[in-house]
Amino acid sequence: MAQNVGTSRSSFSSSNGNDDTPLHNSASVSYGDDYDSDSSNFAPLTPTTLSMAIPEELAGAIPLIKRFQVEGFLRLMQKQIQSAGKRGFFSKKSVGPQVRERFTFEDMLSFQKDPIPTSLLKINSDLVSRATKLFQIILKYMGVDSSDRVTPTNLDERIELVGKLYKHTLKRSELRDELFVQISKQTRNTPDRQYSVKAWELMYLCASSMPPSKDIGGYLSEYVHNVAHGVNVDSEVRVLALNTLNALKRAVKAGPRHTIPGREEIEALLTSRKLTTIVFFLDETFEEITYDMATTVADAVEELAGIIKLSAYSTFSLFECRKVVAGSKSPDPGNEEYIGLDDNKYIGDLLAEFKSAKDRSKGEILHCKLTFKKKLFRESDEAVTDPMFVQLSYVQLQHDYILGNYPVGRDDAAQLSALQILVEIGFVDTPESCTDWNSLLERFLPRQIAITRAKREWELDILSRYHSM
To answer: What is the CA radius of gyration of the chain?
Structure first.
């Protein structure tokens, strides 16, 4: 099996001692001593000839053949081999005359330990040098050494290398596609199990923060699915392939991260550890949720609903709550602004944006937090009997009323204030003697309506209604 990391054939190598018999004749490119630099030695590749030549797990690449620069890559790779005096990518220096070799599209998409001379895909010429640098980073991450020794990298080095890949590709769709194709190349026919594990680990890390394009994504998903559900697949590789498949599905839906994942996020994914953050409710209570670099708002809402046992949560979501205070000694508590968040927004991006906004604020104190509340109220809400749903709806209605979001007359305002004070302190003979009486009046009477008449008039009216209950 091509997915079996325990066995492999030496791609781009003629060391099998059977040079007269090509592996895949119909899609091979032949090089002999009379090789020249033009394309006259290359037969045109078509989906028909390829379908007869490559293994089943690469079938998804056949419709994309025009995206790959097969001839250019193989030609430059041959030059690189010849200039190094090698018979193939894995062989030692040649001691005899050069022998005829046949390299194929399959070889192009198989593991190699040497740097690549150009990109695998047809991309903008300005990006080719960056593409070759990506492959060097991949080789280093995998611990691939030209001397055939496995040179494993430590955790700090791997985190740094992943950060470099994100920096180069997150904002460039062409390079994202190139990166995914390069990594998938390194997962095929690997000569060492550790190489394979590291390649799949890297694939998972990249799929967790950004998607490939639609066409490359289709090919990649099919390939990853075949490995994840194949037979004779290393158990650790299988787990990484399954994680990659799930990450790809999420990334295709949510798009790339807007901010480069930080060291903490990369380390957490590498060590299978979850990060935590706080989500507030409108009554200032809160819950802790977990997240990683691929967690979206929709994921967080589902987790939080499970924590608080809210079964009917389709009308709830996360909001960004921003509150600006002029200064630490300012008497003005500041106005809260609630910004609705897209379900596909990444939690990691939000927290990074919170920090950035706070760092940019000058002369003001900016408080940013995640808040869980209803997106909308519907008539059908009255039929919902979920206790948590009812409680959260009540808290939100109370919160919005106090902020003055609902138009209300004086009589209704006085009645609602009296009711809320009764809920807060219970029934007492002289509520106005309570030490926090004035604060109760301020808390439960919207500012916009409070200024319409004198404070003493409000107090007498509310007291009258309180005693009549």
So the answer is: 32
- Alpha-helix runs per DSSP H in 38-85: 47-51, 70-83
Are 309 and 224 spatial neighbours (Cβ–Cβ below 8 Å)? Answer: no
pTM attached to this predicted model: 0.78
Closest CA to 139 of 118, 176, 111, 120: 111
Distance (Å) of CA 293 to CA 42, 209, 256, 274 = 44, 6, 11, 9
Q: How far apart are CA 407 and CA 446, in angstroms?
A: 10
Instruction: Give, to the nearest 10 degrees, the angle between helix 263-270 and helix 193-207.
Output: 130
Contacts 24+ apart (CB under 8 A), 59-64: 59/222, 60/218, 60/219, 60/220, 60/222, 60/223, 61/105, 61/109, 61/219, 63/215, 64/215, 64/216, 64/219
Q: Tell whether the torsion through CA atoms of 283, 287, 293 and 294 is positive or negative.
A: negative
- State pLDDT tens for residues 395-444: 998 888 877 777 778 888 888 888 888 888 888 888 887 878 888 888 78
> Strand 316-325 relative to strand 336-340: parallel, antiparallel, unpaired?
antiparallel
Helix (H, G, I), strand (E, B) or coil at 370: strand
Task: Name residue 235's amino acid.
Answer: S
